């Protein structure tokens, strides 16, 4: 039995936030130079992908629940 359901939107959002953190950590450590405006498209794009992944995941879960309710699965 699973302790919680898989939520792909949160995984994608966390990955985008982690990538942003890694970029700025590398900038702070002097490994590379990251312009300040890089965070905006990275986070907005990551959050948009997270929304799409979340909606797809919810749709798949709802379809599977409806199928089990009807006795097809």
Which helices and strands, and how do they pair?
Blueprint: H1 8-29, H2 39-70
Please provide a written account of the structure.
With 73 residues, the chain is an all-alpha fold. It has a domain at 49-73. It is 74% helix and 0% strand. Helix 1 runs antiparallel to helix 2.
Give the strand tally.
Answer: 0
**Helix and strand composition category:** mainly alpha
Number of helices: 2
In whole angstroms, the N-to-C terminal distance is 18 Å
Point out poorly predicted stretches: none
Transmembrane segments: 35-57
Keywords: Membrane, Transmembrane, Transmembrane helix
Précis, in short:
This protein is mostly helical and 73 residues long. Helices cover 74% and strands 0% of the residues.
List keywords for this structure.
73 residues; mainly alpha; 2 helices; elongated; membrane
